[in-house]
Design a protein that fits this description.
Length: about 210
């Protein structure tokens, strides 16, 4: 059975289980999502389901996007994402909500991490930095040597150093669903989810259950 949703991260809170223990959860406003397209192996070469999320004004979409959605009489939607799946038991125009996930099931959540801009090696990779004694004045947060001068005589590609930090695609795998509210389209995930509040996330059935 196909299980997948698009949503927005609301923030973190906590709930209490039956034993009175506090459980940290991330709230996600997930769905309702419309099935905007179904791809099949015999026609498209692969099997997938495309979902749309969050209604939007007509002026904010291109003509091609509007035509793609109106072909199946689907509302105008801001976000479209494709989910690879082997079992297709949905059809174009169907509406999916958080009711497809049960408390205790496990999901994978994909999002983009918070952007930190240009960062030094100490913040970006947790480098120790230079010594704080013996006359050192400006090397405390420096990365140190990148190699010798003669051999290799250059810096290898992929070496850790200062650069752009964050804003990369991150997947939180095999997280337990702790809370489901179908009326408010809320999903509570037991743990952290990548991205800032309001960030777009994609929720899949866990692959490593």
């Amino acid at each position: 059975m196909f299980k997948g949703l698009i949503g927005k991260k609301v923030g973190m809170t906590q709930i209490f289980d039956q034993d009175g223990n506090a459980v940290p959860i991330t709230l996600i406003e997930a769905g309702p999502c419309f099935v905007t397209q179904v791809r099949r192996v015999d026609r498209d070469g692969y099997s997938a389901v495309q979902l749309g999320f969050e209604k939007v004004e007509e002026r904010k979409l291109s003509g091609g996007e509007k035509g793609h959605l109106q072909k199946n009489e689907i509302p105008l939607l801001r976000h479209l994402r494709e989910f690879r799946t082997k079992t297709i038991d949905v059809k174009e125009g169907d509406v999916l909500d958080v009711g497809q996930f049960a408390v205790g099931s496990h999901v994978d959540v994909i999002g983009f991490s918070k952007g930190r801009g240009f960062a030094g090696a100490v913040k970006r990779y947790g480098f120790r930095g230079g010594p704080k004694t013996h006359g050192q004045s400006d090397r405390t947060r420096a990365p140190g040597s990148h190699g010798s001068g003669t051999t290799p005589g250059r810096v290898y590609k992929g070496s850790r150093g200062p650069g752009h930090m964050g804003n990369t695609r991150v997947t939180s795998q095999n997280i337990e669903v702790a809370f489901v509210d179908v009326e408010k389209n809320l999903l509570g995930i037991n743990g952290s989810v990548p991205g800032p509040k309001g960030g777009l996330v994609v929720i899949n059935e866990a692959r490593k259950q």
